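Project standup — Tuesday

K.O.: blocked on the structure for the chain from last sprint. Re-posting the sequence here as requested.
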Amino acid sequence: MTYRPITDVMILARAKHKYYGAYPAGFVERGRLMLGAQIDDTILHVCSGRVRDYPFAGVGPNDKTVDIDRATQPDVVMDVRERLPLRRGGWRAMMVDTPYSRDEAGNYRAGSAVYPEPGPLLKLCLEHTRPGGRVGFLHWLWPSPPKMVNGCKIKEVFVALVTTGRGSRARHYVVFEKTAPGTRK
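H.V.: unblocked you, prediction finished:
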């Protein structure tokens, strides 16, 4: 039997706030569910921007944020192209929302030179995720995961096309799972 990820299309309302790069209305709650994370579970928001200002459900009270722009007041100010915050045993889940291109990165206050390439960032996120954990990646590109990370196989478990409707660019939300060592699937 061939493995096939769950697929979906999310047609969501535009963000109801004025800052650049905000998630579409309702996305964070749905994206979190695809990570298998409950609202009280701690997940890491990578390139988090102003996710704490998100006016809809989905951001948990124990979530942590990392961003290069200190004006967004993340828990950790860090260039994620080089490293990620450490967590004993690894992160249970991460939600990643980087600028979608070098040109897009120029729209953010932190500057146009800051663009984490999707493939290397995905690999870094998976290295910092515990076995059985998941990484949700929202981007124009569908990044290719490494086959193995830290002795664990990587598989795609959920794929969605996210759009705010006609005339808007669509994004992929792909959830990658780092299987426990010895898992056959």
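K.O.: great, moving the ticket to review. The first strand starts at residue 6 and ends at 11. The radius of gyration is 16 Å.
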